[in-house]
Design a protein that fits this description.
The complex is a heterodimer of chains A (200) and B (660). Chain A contains six helices and seven strands, in the order H-H-E-E-E-H-E-H-E-H-E-E-H. Chain A is α/β, with parallel strands linked by helices and 200 residues long. The longest helix of chain A is centred in the N-terminal third of the chain and has 26 residues, at 24-49. By secondary structure, chain B is an alpha+beta fold. Chain B contains 22 helices and ten strands. In chain B, strands 2, 3, 4, 5, 6 and 7 form a six-stranded antiparallel β-sheet that branches. The longest helix of chain B has 32 residues, at 201-232. The radius of gyration of chain B is 27 Å and the shape is globular. Classes of the chains: A alpha/beta (200), B alpha+beta (660). The A-B interface holds A 16-20, 26-27, 30-31, 33-34, 37-38, 40-41, 43-48, 50-53, 55-56, 97-99 and B 158, 270-274, 277, 280, 284, 288, 291, 295-299, 306, 308, 311-312, 315, 318-319, 322-323, 326-327, 329-330, 333-334, 336, 338-339, 341, 352, 370, 373-374, 376-377, 381-382, 579-580.
Chain lengths: 200, 660
């Protein structure tokens, strides 16, 4: 524990307020502001590398929550926890009222065309007729769609905003969560390598 | 075509800024008059080209030119014209363009009002301005170009965040930037003084008006943001200690310290290196605020679209501007000659106390804002620091500040007699007793803390009035003499009195609105009524209406008290069809002593609506107080001293041999 004498404290304060006193201490006091900023800049640098949008999902590496959602459409099955084992899958949380979902829709469609990953939809807090019209307009890429009308299952999944996309391994454990619309970069750099790895 | 011209004008502005940031500085160092003379010309040219660029972007918005990406992303043809215009700066790129435009306006103002500045100082100040401008123009052009085209052009835009389609919110950014960017001038003066190695009373007299102006704008800008949050977010609160709010509040605290310490430099030639440091810090905190909001290092309700490349660029700018100026400070400040000495109990002592408390307050806000980032960086997990921390640290610092604020102005310079000053405050103490007793009689349930807050407010206002009465020797000389004296009191002194009274009003508003707020949240059906703080809120109906680019669900409340009609309130819930987002428009009826505040939320599906009703005592005083504070600043700004009196140094300038 460094303790400053009363006199030293007074000197430090005094020099900031330019009372007269000399010596090395005086110079040191003036070097403190740039040093302080240096530390701050370093902190910002580290902070930039981290994305506060990547919410550390408590669910990462955990089994998917227990759920069983009814189908949205008559000709397509609903979605339940059991559907998420055996194959690497993506669970895409979407809604017709969500504009960014429109943006990522072509990317989801392209992902669904691949045969190494199953793409499931979780229709979040949506009116079924709106969701159906939306899929009719843009195309339905999903292998299964669960209708989560009141958002209960979304809460269990820790859905923070729509869209969100989860990567689930063969063992039914959540391996990755992407917040916001999927971008081509995110798919190429993170999602596909991860799918590759999980298939092995 | 116009868009490309705007882009081109911005590039030309950058070229001019680069010239402005180099040649005049070198010219001032070597004594080349022609190079120094480039500063005002390039500053004016920079303004012209940035104004052209800004005009070009505005044109694209007004004509809904959806071949411009920025317009596509932030506008829509069905938006009212006003919000098409304000939409220009309601996004990252456009707001940065507004930022550089205001910087250029301030540069032009230095040219216009700085004719009496010594040429070398003016060249250096404008040179530093030019460097700042170069940095931000490069940032705009390289990472945030608002003039990018969208190909193919969509039929219509994506619309503007409905929360921002609001009058107070539209003018909140320009005022904030006038504050932030205004501090760039004091920063430039500080750096110029460090280069010259000289700070004196004349320097302080030149700097203080800029600091005051920036501070007034920032005060109003923060208040507008707070007002907006109050009526638009629908929770009856007006300050949330959100990182973005803090980002604007920290420069305000540093600026408050600066306008006080600059007085000491001006009057007593003391506190020089500290004042320089504050001038650097006020702008540095503005820049850090910009960084925090736009780099995405912190999450906040109103963070801009995040792009790491921008974050790196702003961090680079921060490092150059703040790191560079603080290094210059470390090198040069020790050589500044210390000025007049003073005893701890003196006007200077009071202002030092103000400075210590304001700086500490800024530091606590700073730590609270950055703590989540720090903890995350060392792997401690994600946390958020909330109101309990800020209320627990910031409020205790403001108490001594407000107590001292009363005594400070009564202390003479150099050495003072505290007992004597306090003796003269007997009348203020009497006012406190009366006000507290009156409050107690209305609010017998008042807590000690709330009464203490009210006492503080009364103390601040009372002592400001006592100080003014002392100055004019009210009731001690005949009234006519007092009036004559009142005419002779400088405007700056009136400015101080008014601003301090404003602070007292704000303190009363803060205290009452935090201590005595009544809130009632429930499901109501038409015909139901709820009593809140003695007022009877009856929901008479909820109807559906159509706005220009939104649909409305409007509730009607009839508010009565003891059977007498008080007001009809029409809270709205708007649904913006293009953006697919909902906003809340609280209905507020103010009695000037309190706000009656009503919000109609979602229907419960069985014919009822969730309603939130509040009785917010003294909230109007927050806005009134803030306006009074800014008026005080403006009054001080209009002081004769700031317009004349500069020649003092000019004469000395000639006496100093060249090259000194």
């Amino acid at each position: 524990m460094v303790s400053l004498s009363n006199h030293e404290v007074r000197c430090a304060v005094a020099s900031m307020f330019d009372f007269k006193f000399g010596g090395v201490q005086r110079r040191l006091v003036y070097i403190l502001p740039p040093l302080g900023f240096l530390a701050l800049a370093a902190l910002f640098w580290v902070g930039l590398g981290r994305d506060p949008g990547v919410l550390p999902s408590a669910l990462i590496d955990q089994p998917v929550p227990e759920f069983d959602l009814p189908p949205l459409k008559d000709d397509k099955p609903g979605l339940a926890s059991a559907d998420l084992t055996g194959e690497v899958s993506l669970v895409n949380v979407f809604a017709s009222w969500c504009i960014p979902c429109r943006v990522e829709h072509p990317i989801i469609t392209r992902l669904a065309e691949r045969d190494d990953v199953a793409v499931f939809g979780l229709n979040y807090k949506d009116k079924p007729e709106d969701a159906k019209a939306w899929l009719a307009e843009l195309g339905d890429p999903y292998d299964r769609i669960g209708a989560d009308r009141d958002g209960r299952v979304g809460i269990d999944w820790g859905v923070y905003g729509v869209p969100e996309t989860f990567v689930v391994g063969r063992d039914g454990r959540i391996r990755y969560k992407h917040v916001g619309p999927l971008t081509a970069e995110a798919v190429a750099e993170r999602i596909l390598p991860l799918v590759e790895e999980l298939r092995r | 075509m116009i868009t490309e011209l705007g882009h081109y004008a911005l590039i030309l502005a950058l070229a001019l800024a680069l010239v402005q940031g180099t040649l005049p500085l070198i010219g001032a160092q070597r004594g080349v008059a022609a190079w120094m003379e480039l500063a005002p010309t390039t500053a004016a040219g920079q303004f012209v080209f940035i104004a052209l660029a800004f005009g070009a972007l505005t044109h694209a918005y007004v004509t809904s030119d959806f071949s411009v990406l920025n317009v596509v992303e932030n506008s829509h043809s069905s938006k009212p014209l006003l919000y098409k215009i304000t939409g220009v700066w309601a996004n990252h790129e456009g707001s940065m363009l507004l930022w550089v435009l205001i910087l250029a306006v301030f540069g032009l103002a230095v040219v216009a009002f700085g004719r009496n500045l010594p040429p070398a100082l003016r060249a250096r100040v404008l040179g530093v301005q030019g460097l700042i401008g170069s940095g931000f123009l490069a940032f705009l052009l390289l990472t945030s170009n608002p003039f990018l085209r969208a190909a193919p052009a969509p039929l219509d835009g994506q619309g503007l965040n409905p929360l921002l389609q609001d009058l107070a919110m539209s003018f909140h950014p320009p005022f904030l930037y006038l504050g932030y960017v205004g501090f760039s001038i004091t920063f430039a003066f500080a750096v110029a003084a460090l280069i010259e190695g000289r700070v004196d009373a004349a320097w302080a007299r030149w700097v203080r008006p800029w600091a005051l102006a920036a501070w007034c704008f920032l005060t109003l800008g923060i208040a507008m943001g707070s007002w907006w949050a109050y009526y638009e977010l629908g929770w009856g609160g007006w300050w949330f200690w959100d990182p973005v709010e803090n980002a604007s509040f920290m420069p305000w605290l540093a600026g408050t310290a600066l306008i006080h310490s600059a007085t000491v430099v001006e009057k007593r030639d003391a506190l020089k290196s500290w004042t320089i440091l504050l001038a650097i810090l006020a702008f540095s905190l503005s820049l850090i605020g910009t960084f925090l909001v736009r780099s995405g290092v912190l999450t906040s309700v109103h963070a801009f679209a995040v792009d790491p490349a921008r974050g790196v660029f702003i961090l680079l700018l921060l490092t150059l501007a703040i790191g560079g100026s603080l290094t210059l400070y470390a090198l040069r400040a020790p050589t500044l000659k210390a000025g007049g000495l003073f005893a701890p109990i003196s006007r200077e002592g009071g202002l030092v106390l103000n400075n210590i408390l304001m700086a500490t307050a800024a530091a606590t806000v700073f730590i609270g804002t950055l703590y989540p980032l720090l903890l995350d960086a060392v792997g401690g997990g994600k946390v958020s620091v909330g109101a309990p921390y800020f209320n627990g640290t910031f409020v205790p610092l403001m108490v001594p500040a407000l107590l001292a604020m009363a005594a400070g102005p009564l202390l003479p310079w150099k050495r003072a007699d505290l007992a004597g000053a306090l003796g003269r405050l007997k009348l203020a103490a009497a006012i406190v007793v009366v006000v507290v007793a009156a409050t107690w009689s209305v609010r017998t349930d008042a807590s000690i803390l709330a009464l203490f807050g009210i006492a503080l407010a009364a103390w601040v206002v009372g002592s400001a009035l006592v100080e003014l009465a002392e100055r004019v020797k009210l009731f001690r000389v005949p009234l006519g003499d007092s009036l004559r004296r009142a005419g002779g009191v400088p405007r700056a002194a009136y400015g101080m009195t008014v601003a301090h009274i404003g602070a007292g009003i704000v303190v009363a508003g803060i205290t009452a609105s935090s201590a005595w707020r009544t809130e009632s949240i429930q499901v109501m059906r038409p015909g139901d009524s709820v009593v809140v703080a003695g007022y009877d809120f009856a929901l008479t109906g909820v109807e559906e209406l159509q706005g220009p680019n939104y649909t409305i669900q409007r509730g009607t409340f009839t508010v009565t008290r003891d059977g007498r009609m008080v007001a009809r309130l029409f809270p709205e819930e708007r649904f913006y069809t293009v953006e697919q987002r909902q906003t809340t428009e609280a209905a507020i009826h103010t009695t000037w002593l309190a706000d009656l505040y009503a919000v109609v939320g979602d229907p419960d599906g069985t014919g009822g609506w969730v309603t939130r009703l509040y009785h917010n005592p003294l909230v109007p005083w927050l806005w009134i107080g803030t306006i009074v504070i800014a008026l005080g600043g403006g009054l001080s700004l209009s002081d004769r001293r700031h317009r004349v009196g500069a020649p003092a140094r000019r004469r000395r300038e000639r006496a100093v041999p060249a090259g000194a």
